[in-house]
Design goal:
about 400 residues, Rossmann fold, eight-stranded mixed beta sheet, binds cytidine-5'-triphosphate
């Protein structure tokens, strides 16, 4: 087997220490790693540790006489099977998005004709800043694949998305990317997935929500990313980790979910798996409701926007393929068919969410039994794990997009 080669660009962030573990993991799997360390990166890890783990010299200087005698930056960027940036700082992403080439790392990124993958790492506000989100969209449109970032506590003491994905997740994404395009029929496709419940505030401590765990939506996002898609996962509150290669936007309410979905457009396909609350309290009490003597409070509900119907009617921005889910407790097929027509989507994946004889429910469980309904008819899929249902659906989506649905 040919040795696979990765050009690893280590940017200047605290997460640079995780790059060392990543190098170790890649070397153990027989992948050759050629490290490039930015000037800022060298403030966080030493060239010596990187070189020792990579078993190769570390490149740092664009104007190195030895390397540049043979046009080092060009060779460097083309001799690899994959260029990986980990950590990809906000600054490195910004410079790459604008095609700057003011050091060895950005010059290699501009000169390469190989797939590029980035593992962003930065403070949550820097990640959420519109400038970074613009750069992310630009890089994604240029074909750059992303792993992470994860959500969680950060070195700077804040909490949220921005933490670099774990070395193991980056390792798996790299190995998949190195497997080549045959296993990745969705490479270059942008797909939006909604997942999880929504939570509509009633007062500062109470919410209106539902039993969705997000498991099926997350499994679908993971399966689509496995096939090479750039997946944006707009998720309500769940306890699940972001699947490798997926970018998550966390939301709480239906209106936030709708805004995040609109911001993710244009996409090739949208898969609406989220259990969106149909209603929300028309006003949120600013202070906690107390029992008092006035009896139970009246909460008036107003209707939420229908995200699936909105995406199906998005005019020129409409995804080529829009897939909805129908959670029903009775008359599954009839209700699902009616939903297909009412929402204007292309397929409905229908599942029975009533508890079975043994009291097992789909919501929160690990199994699912679905039927897929489109204009052609109904496909009944056998009961299977949610990951298997997700793989099958991702494969069906890949086939449909390859055939140019709606084109
Ligand atoms: N959906 C949505 N936005 C809403 C409600 C539902 O995007 N406000 C999507 C769900 O993600 C799912 C599909 O619509 O893909 C169907 O959801 P479901 O709750 O089964 O249907 P409802 O629209 O609530 O219809 P009904 O009340 O008749 O069951």
């Amino acid at each position: 087997m040919n040795t696979k080669r990765v050009l690893l660009i280590v940017g200047g962030g605290v997460a640079a220490y995780k790059a060392l573990e990543l190098v170790r993991r890649l070397r153990k799997a027989g992948v050759a790693v050629r490290p490039v360390l930015t000037a800022a990166g060298a403030r966080f890890v030493t060239p010596l540790s990187l070189a020792a783990l990579a078993e190769d010299a570390v490149r740092t200087d664009l104007f190195s006489l030895e390397d540049e005698a043979g046009m080092g930056h060009i060779q460097l960027s083309r001799a690899a099977d994959l260029v990986l940036v980990a950590p990809a700082t906000a600054d490195l992403m910004a410079r790459a998005a604008h095609g700057l080439a003011d050091d060895l790392a950005t010059t290699a990124l501009l000169a390469t004709d190989k797939p590029v993958m980035m593992a962003p790492a930065m403070n949550v506000r820097m990640w959420r800043h519109p400038a970074t989100q613009r750069n992310l969209a630009t890089l994604a449109a240029d074909g750059v694949a992303f792993v992470g970032p994860d959500e969680g506590a950060m070195a700077c003491g804040e909490f949220g998305p921005g933490r670099m994905a774990e070395p193991e997740a980056i390792f798996r994404a790299v190995m998949q990317a190195l497997e080549g395009p045959r296993a990745r029929p969705l490479a270059g496709r942008r797909i939006l997935v909604t997942a999880g419940p929504t939570a509509e505030p009633i007062d500062p401590v109470r919410v209106l929500t539902n039993r969705s765990s997000g498991k099926q939506g997350y499994a679908i996002a993971a399966a689509l990313a496995d096939l090479g898609a750039q997946v944006t996962l707009v998720s309500g509150p769940t306890a699940l980790d972001v699947p490798p290669g997926v970018v998550r936007a966390s939301v709480e309410t239906a209106r936030e979910m709708e805004a995040a979905c609109q911001a993710a457009l244009p996409v090739d396909a949208a898969i609406c798996v989220a259990a969106v609350s149909d209603w929300r309290p028309d006003a949120v009490f600013r202070v906690k409701l107390k029992k008092g003597h006035a009896g139970p409070p009246a909460v008036t509900l107003v209707e939420n926007p229908d995200i699936l119907a909105g995406l199906s009617a998005a005019g020129p921005n409409r995804p080529k393929l829009v897939v909805g889910f129908a959670a029903e407790t009775n008359d599954l097929e009839d209700n699902a068919r009616a939903k297909l027509a009412r929402k204007g989507c292309d397929w409905i994946v229908a599942n029975d969410v009533a508890a079975d004889a043994a009291g097992e429910t789909v919501m929160g469980g690990d199994q699912n039994e679905v039927m897929v309904i489109d204009a052609q008819g109904v496909e009944r899929w056998p009961r299977a794990g949610k990951a298997e249902v997700a793989r099958r659906l991702a494969a069906r989506i890949a086939t449909a997009l390859a055939a140019g649905v709606g084109a």
